[in-house]
Fold each of these.
Amino acid sequence: MKIWSTEHVFSYPWETVIKAAMRKYPNPMNPNVVGVDVLDRSLDAEGRLHSHRLLSTEWGLPGIVRAILGTNHTQTYVQEHSIVDPEKKKMELCSTNITLTNLISVDERLLYRPHPDNPDVTILTQEAIITVKGLSLGSYLEGMMAMRMSANAIKGWDAIEWIIKNSERENERASL
Amino acid sequence: MNSVGEACTDMKREYDQCFNRWFAEKFLKGDQGGDPCTESFKRYQRCVQTAIKEKDIPVDGVEFMGPNKDKPES
């Protein structure tokens, strides 16, 4: 089992960041995400918005790799639950893979909040628990996955920034 | 962005546009009344649930509740 965590600050207010986070896909940094669907959405008694989403990812795995992994499917799926609290200004997002679970489990948690030292910017705390199952190279592969997650996290932050800047351009054009 | 069910993509986009507008202009500003997206969500959901069954995607038991229904805290 490998636990990985990181923090990142976006130089935008919380509302701007989470509007972008809710519309994160598609973006050029995450081309492997090929489908996003909302499975369920509801408000709880405290006025928080819960969303359950399904993400489809396509890795373009060659046939032989798929044969080794024992899967006929080319797409892997991730299920995600997010909670947006507009009063407390918190967005929490948890995700887990629901395919290839006999091989690997990646559980991620993201928390977006205004930065405690500067309410005009947003801090993202991100952590993952990675478990590779049933292989003697487990801890080595977990290490590799953690490195991959670091690289992907950076892409994820760039993706949010890209969405924000894209929206700013759209707003400028609309107001002309 | 596409839906997991190819036939659902247009419905998904229609719902997403409605939701994104409501989210930005109402929800985040403290106005939670009157979700305008219920109809488009229902249409979209029917399609997605069918696609999930057809593709045998192991989604864990999230029953379709639709927006604005109170859910017990998990």
Note: Chain A touches chain B through 33 residues (CB under 8 Å).
Amino acid sequence: MAALDSDSEEDLVSYGTGLEPLEEGERPKKPIPLQDQTVRDEKGRYKRFHGAFSGGFSAGYFNTVGSKEGWTPSTFISSRQNRADKSVLGPEDFMDEEDLSEFGIAPKAIVTTDDFASKTKDRIREKARQLAAATAPIPGATLLDDLITPAKLSVGFELLRKMGWKEGQGVGPRVKRRPRRQKPDPGVKIYGCALPPGSSEGSEEEDDDYLPDNVTFAPKDVTPVDFTPKDNVHGLAYKGLDPHQALFGTSGEHLNLFSGGSEGTSNLLGDIGLNKGRKLGISGQAFGVGALEEEDDDIYATETLSKYDTVLKDEEPGDGLYGWTAPKQYKSQKESEKDLRYIGKILDGFSLASKSLSSKKIYPPPELPKDYRPVHYFRPVVTATSENSHLLQVLSESAGKAAQDPGTHSRHQLNACKRAELLGETPVQSSATSVLEFLSQKDRERIKELKQATDLKAAQLKARSLAQNASSSRLQPSSPDLGHCSWRMALGAGTATTRASNFKPFAKDPEKQKRYEEFLVHVKKGQKDALEHCLDPSMTEWERGREREEFARAAQLYVSSHSTLSSRFTHAKEEDDSDQVEVPRDQENDVNDKQSAVKMKMFGKLTRDTFEWHPDKLLCKRFNVPDPYPDSTLVGLPRVKRDKYSVFNFLTLPETSSSPTTQASSDKVPQHRGPDKSRKPSRWDTSKQEKKEDSISEFLSLARSKVGPPKQESSPIVNKEEEHVLEPLSNKMVNKDVDSPTEGEGSRPSMDLFKAIFASSSDEKSSSSEDEQGDSEDDQEGTEEATFRSSQEIDLGETSSLAHASEPVHPEPTPFPIQKMEIDEREEFGPRLPPVFCPNARQKLEIPQKGKHKKNKEKHKNKKEHRRKKEKKKKHKKHKHKSKQKNKKSEKSSSSESTDSSDSQSDEEGTTDLSPQELLRRLKCLPLRRQ
Amino acid sequence: MAFPEPKPRGPELPRKLLKTLDCGQGAVRAVRFNVDGNYCLTCGSDKTLKLWNPLRGTLLRTYSGHGYEVLDAAGSFDNSNLCSGGGDKAVVLWDVASGLVVRKFRGHAGKVNTVQFNEEATLILSGSIDSSIGCWGCHSWRPEPVQTLNEARDGISSVKVSDHEVLAGSVDGRVRRYDLRKGQLFSDYVGSPITCTCFSRDGQCTLVPSLDSTLRLLDKDTGELPGEYTGHQNKQYKLDCCLSERDTHVVSCSEDGKVFFWNLVEGSLALALPMGVGVVQSLAFHPTEPCLLTAMGGRIQCWREEAYEAEGGAG
């Protein structure tokens, strides 16, 4: 698989450097064992991994001195000639490079100096930042801010300081008394005792009861309230492990290490930030002491009850939480005590304000009306017409606005039309209130017709069901009265008669319809006994009663059905039973002359058809080609509407007068043999037709002369006739497969079928293919003949069989020698794609023969099917190309062969008693026999 | 256009059998080179599609996912995708590297005989025996084709695509050329069912073989017949044909187990290369070198010119 490897190299991505290829005969080197691997520094000296710090005392050469020769002071200068000036040697001179490196004991890297080491940090801001960092989407995003701290304090700080404010204190008037609860955290150690008296809490702590009067305290610093919403699933106030706490801790450490002065106060303030700062790394009650932590006193934190409130009461003012709870006490206190006793000092040039700032005025929110509901509901939109003006008025009144003069409409009440009017745009086709107005006159008419038809149908249905109901219930005495008054009521409303003339529930029975109409007229006139007048006197009483009821119901129903039904149903978007069908405008014209041209090898104009063809826009885009017809919505070949049942859609007859140099674009009468919805005419038509050119074309010309102008122009009656005639035909074609099983099953196929199948010969092939031609064609044939005979009123139920009978070509597999000669080249048009070769992968050798046989067999199968009308015929009949597809499928060989044969077996099993084995055996010996 | 020079042509024809590969996928329905000719695809009747290095004879990957035999395949210009069509009526777009099915288009009503990418591999054009050509967008999830060309009256046996044209040969005996730029459809009548089509590399001509054992060279613009090539046997099967790498020769399969080479201009038979017993089903010519792949039965064979020396000892 070396080849594979080397080959697969090409499309593999490799990382790293490969090993060098081995020399011829060279042994692969043994890898150096781990203990023998060494690390050297840049000077080639071994590096040691032992020692106190990095490198430790690897200062010398192999733990001795700096060179191989021993320790030699490199800068020895004899003091005899030039006195060595006393160079001041610093400790660095005796240090190794390692010590000066980043991780050495005296790193030379840039470090923050004291100025920057956040002694003067704004701790409130820092706290805020910590909070932000903890809750920020990217934890530690504020890290940079921490590293780069401004060295200078802001002016406000300076001013406050000058006024006596100290870090850690709150801003505001001093308070007399520290609340007892606010003890410093017992966990915090307190260093030093020289606390500034003003801000000390220590004294208070020593003796709770003793509170000197003259001592005031600064208010406690305010912790910014954290308003971040809780978006996790932890318990309240719980924070998960946050590794960034360690980072903040380091900054706190800095503060502690280098700012001894502020330590005391910060401790006393007992804020969380510093607490954390004291303890490096992750802290928490559940965690032990990390390796980096210096203090281990607080591992098992002791909970003291003094941390908790034991009494429910209002919070003390100035406890740092006023931002949150805003206790009234505090507010009132602030308002009452106007003398802000600030910490004594007032800056030069400043004085206390004599009058306080006018407090901000707060406007209350508007009051909601009592009956306000916070839900909006939309009022029905009513277009102003004469009938519903009243309703409209009511609505608008209820909406709280009186009907307004259109001129005074505000901007928001304008609709698009009015706006357009104001803007001076050209109005859109009047004020089209209905889609109908956009339609063309013709379409409108058609829609009208359709509507009428559907109305009629629905009404008929309903009438029938109602009549049935009525007849079932008519024995009850009250029903006729009911019917009476109901129809009278309905008619009395006056709506029924408006379109009654359109409504023909009894159209099938013209007499009855007439009577019904008469009845309607009478009713309209207001005659009470209208019904009696118009009923047929010759009818029996029962019939009369029945009809009376029917009429009443119909009249009543029409009123309701017309409005309700029509509002519920929409008309089909596509008319499914129009008499028109789309047919490509240009047809590839007849192949006869082309064939001769091909025979004469006169390729070129004679054999070429050129059509206008519209590619899809997307197709053009994908091909990177500009759309050749940018403003056409058409796709494919241009199409025209043709009469659906025109013979010319189905015929593929040659134009007898066709000149040899016709082109599709020429204005010759087009051949209507283009693809139809149901089936595509195939070359079979042409070949077939060529075959029997004289007979059919003669026939056709005859027919044409009879009909005169082309069918499209023929009178509607003829068309209708055609239609009627064709419908059963097509029905029959469809039905054929339904009843085919009954036809085909039961009887064992005659022997000549098997002969036809298994006795293969070349002439037979031709005949079979021809037969198939006929087969695939015969539906069309049927059509043609049907149309021709339609004028002669032939019973069309039998057309197809007639077609068979009258067709001299297909029925028998017996070859027609002359025809065979004729179709010899045609045969290559075979229904199949040229078979897929290599019939059998496993038995590669007798490929072609098998293929051929297969094909023959297939054909015969087709033939057989055709004749026996097996269920497979369905496909065959419905779609010519489907049958072809089948053929092709069957032409598949090798792997498909088994399925095919089983296929055929199953086919035959339906009709014959042949065992599959037998069949298989026969199939197998086919090639031999053939040779 | 590189019309044949007067210099000896013989050695240029691939007549030396370089390699025989037993594909092991049933009958090989089609063999196709990829865009640069380094690899080839074989479509097997056992529902698989295989990617080979034909010179080395190594199997690179097997693509399975068709529900029936694979009838044709093509590779995209960037070698990233393959498309194939088969008896299961599906057109499948494959990812070359992963071997997975990217899209499966099931719009045809019959076997898909032929598939082809357009120039930028944004479309797959597939010809089916349902007599339609589907243009499927490779990148869209629309199950229906961008456009269906259903002008043919019978099964499509072959589709070829150039930068602005689609050439389709149909069993109804016509070659249709859809010119997207002009917005026109040219339909040339040949008469006999067409088994394959081929653009010449200069884009001037189309090669059209048909079941009357004739190959015709048709002028694209006028539909005239500059050349006709006969001598081989092709009466039943859908056989491939192609032009040699510099349009000097016409190459066609034959049902008598040979591959025929004709001089394109003179129309004379240059070589009939015997392959063995059976039908040569499919062939493919290397885009730049005189290298021919033929498929017969379950094997493919790689042919090079006489002077060719295999690189290294690989394979």
Note: Chain B has a mean pLDDT of 87.
Amino acid sequence: MSTSGNVVAMKKVVQQLRFEANIDRVKVSQAAAELQQFCIQNALQDPLLTGVSSSTNPFRTQKLCSFV
Amino acid sequence: NFCVIFITFEGFLSRAGEANFPLAKMAAQEVQPSETIAKLKSESEALKTKLEEERAKLHDVELHQVAEKVDPLGQFVMKTRRTLKGHGNKVLCMDWCKDKRRIVSSSQDGKVIVWDAFTTNKEHAVTMPCTWVMACAYAPSGCAVACGGLDNKCSVYPLSLDKNENLAAKKKSVAMHTNYLSACSFTNSDMQILTSSGDGTCALWDVESGQLLQSFHGHAADVLCLDLAPSETGNTFVSGGCDKKANVWDMRSGQCIQSFETHESDINSVRYYPSGDAFASGSDDATCRLYDLRADREVAIYSKESIIFGASSVDFSLSGRLLFGGYNDYTINVWDVLKGTRVSILFGHENRVSTLRVSPDGTAFCSGSWDHTLRVRE
């Protein structure tokens, strides 16, 4: 009977929801502050944010060719 | 009928510690299946409401409000430094090698190519037995690549130093799904691969034996993308699917530990914030969103009225301040993650941007497109 399969499936849904409803959460203000803190702390080490000089940037170094 | 109900309840007696309802009492009653389903449905609705209420209680501020005091970003000029040409059809996926210079890409024409992005040379090429190779990944050691697509499999190819060697000969089939492979990623070593599939599941595989180590069930439709948490944050990963849900999973137990359903269409791409405390998503609903795992909710939406095409691929810069999104309108939008504003729009591709990854050292990012090319920019 397919209804017993539905009962099993529904129980799993209920159990999963119960689990998710009971997890610990923090306030958005606290979570947001920590996301921001991480950005600020790591800003100087972010080459796409700060830009990298031509001399150290591997995609910009020009190779010099010499003809012998 | 009655006997079947007993058997169903028995399976749950072992979890009595977690259950609220009086199991013994229910088992003693003559309960008809339709009554049980109705009860479970109303309990499930009540729990969903409770979940939203719990999340709403902690929603005391918006991320961009907290970020008001942060200095705004200046003008960004990002130029294409390399264009990788060689695929004969749409580029569907790409991944960086840990050496920060090699790239693997896969295409609709069945080809998987390994490039040296500095020189634009093609170092290896493999022809897959199927078209639409939707997923590819570089192994952490740099010694192998994994790929798959319409063949429903994920295969690993060891990269030979001998350029003349036929890579296809050493191919190892690792994962088997019952529908297309949408994404794959090695875990912290070359030994395990995580896959997602059109069959609605994700799975963790042992590369050497091809054994299924764990499967992840919970999506109600095709799973389109996945991303592993940064190694410091433990054994979790996030997946996104056509059911509009993003699920966070415990890799060891197979349990879905958090689920987010705020997108209005398929989620094409998910990527963890570098700290591991949040993840971004890109969707066919033309928005990218940020979900914080500790607050257990969406904390930002990156959208504009002028952006009406889906976001196919997202990735963060190293500090997490920038979110790059590749879109189906051929552009890449760069977002200020904290303030929620767009800081740059990048043109150049002549068809949909299908894949986008920032390099491992954060100095550049690469995008792949249906225009058959890949572009490296910084």
Note: Chain A touches chain B through 46 residues (CB under 8 Å).
